[in-house]
Amino acid sequence: MVHELALAQEAVRLVARDATRRGCQQVTRVKLRCGELTAVLPEAVRLAFTCASRGTLLEGAVLDIATTPARALCSSCGVEFRPEEWLLLCPRCHTPGARLLSGREMEVVSYEGK
């Protein structure tokens, strides 16, 4: 939960700063994108977001979380695949250590305010 709280606090900080700069009085919705390999629990992020947003212009905002599937690219044979483990073993040529293309991101996609 500590990991999720730090992420939620950073999301609140970033959105609040931008919303204030744009003249928003209240943020009503925030959309996050989390990669499936981030080890982030969506319900824990929601709870942490509720705590982190108290007393800010994000208080009461709805938090939408989209999960990005993991994708990797084999440096040996060039096949793009969905890894099933942290080893990133290519399913075609069985070479380990493919390059991760997605699945580790945690980003604010958008927000709505008034």
TrEMBL record:
Zn(2+) binds at residues 74, 77, 90, 93. Keywords: Metal-binding, Nickel, Zinc. It holds the Pfam family HypA. GO terms for molecular function: nickel cation binding; zinc ion binding. GO terms for biological process: protein maturation. Ni(2+) binds at residue 3. It comes from the Bacteria. Belongs to the HypA/HybF family. Involved in the maturation of [NiFe] hydrogenases. Required for nickel insertion into the metal center of the hydrogenase. This is Hydrogenase maturation factor HypA. It comes from Neomoorella glycerini. The lineage of its organism: Bacteria, Bacillati, Bacillota, Clostridia, Neomoorellales. The gene is hybF.
